[in-house]
Amino acid sequence: MAGAARRRDGHITQERMLEEAMAAIAEDGLAALTMSALAERLGTSGGHILYYFGSKDLLLLAALRWSEAALAEERRSLLTRRMTAERKLDLFLRLYLPRGPRDPRWTLWIELWARASANTALGQAQRELDLGWQEDLEALLAKGVTQGRFAPMDASEVTERASELLALLDGLSTRVVLGQEGGRDSRPALEAARAATALLIPKS
């Protein structure tokens, strides 16, 4: 396939495989993604993809980890930017919520939740990825409290509010991906998240 990233030995890079898998999920949905279909998109063989990932489940997990790693970098960058805590929190909401029903990251998240209870590796991955969001949101809220931008909260309250907000965002995100929150428009979910955030984390 023209444009596919290849190493000098001609093999397509793992990152390119993950990138193309996410694009395929966004275009055709998760059910349509097979090793053979992905191989055809990449101009390679299904065996080549299996060599790196071993199974479709492991490929999907790797794709989710890859996507979340990029978001983790954006979150860390957000925490260090020179802006008000309220603005940072609003950008955090935007970063967390899906872009629409075809958002491949959230499609993978829903699949992960469905399989995690019966798969130790998937369950561990879910906890690790969730913890990153939780810790960064707690850091954002704690700094906002210290700066006097949010109402006073002790450490346990910060943890509780962060957990509650993330649970709410998970629910809204699921509705968007299932097409239940404004159809193809994710703005109603963002407005609902903002309204709930104002109640959970009031300004000082």
Topology:
Layout lengths: L13 H15 L6 H8 L3 H8 L2 H25 L4 H12 L7 H13 L3 H27 L8 H23 L9 H14 L4
Helix pairs in contact: 1-4, 2-3, 4-5, 4-6, 4-7, 5-7, 6-7, 7-8, 8-9
End-to-end gap: 55 Å
The SSE order reads HHHHHHHHH
Unreliable residue runs: 1-10
How many H/I helical runs? 9
Based on secondary structure, the structural category is: mainly alpha
Major sheet summary line: none
Report on this structure:
By secondary structure, this protein is mainly α. It has helices at 14-28, 35-42, 46-53, 56-80, 85-96, 104-116, 120-146, 155-177, 187-200. It starts with 13 loop residues before the first helix and ends with a helix. The relative contact order is 0.11.
